[in-house]
Amino acid sequence: xxxxxxxxxxxxxxxxxxxxxxxxxxxxxxxxxxxxxxxxxxxxxxxxxxxxxxxxxxxxxxxxxxxxxxxxxxxxxxxxxxxxxxxxxxxxxxxxxxxxxxxxxxxxxxxxxxxxxxxxxxxxxxxxxxxxxxxxxxxxxxxxxxxxxxxxxxxxxxxxxxxxxxxxxx
Length: 170
Description:
This protein has helices at residues 11-37, 44-48, 55-62, 67-88, 92-109, 131-144, 148-151, 160-167. α1 packs antiparallel against α4, α4 crosses α5 (92-109) and α5 (92-109) packs antiparallel against α6 (131-144). It is built from 8 helices and no strands.
């Protein structure tokens, strides 16, 4: 049996999901650009102070003359590309997945678990749930309810019938 998927969103749902996508995109884009345009920026201090379950790996990367520059470039440009993709609504499925992965690394570097001593990289006092986990969940929701084909540049690569079917299902 061949089932055709049809997305039927209300105007407010489309607005809400698009707003969430654009805001997260802006956050990623801004964070990446700040890193790129800050002279001498490096992930070294962040990775060196990691406390989570992957702390030994992060600390090894921080002390590697080969891996650290690679991680710096991937972090800077990964943030920019994920952010730009989400902001304009183009190639958003992979951007959402890479965004979740990047946020997972941030979460695991400084997880808000009891017993870990917080340092300058941690904002506020959290227990298990922090902004990285919330943003991961938001990206997961956006992954499940894609609207880029309706309100992003992706709609220009599908044809008019696909756009109309998503907004006004038969």
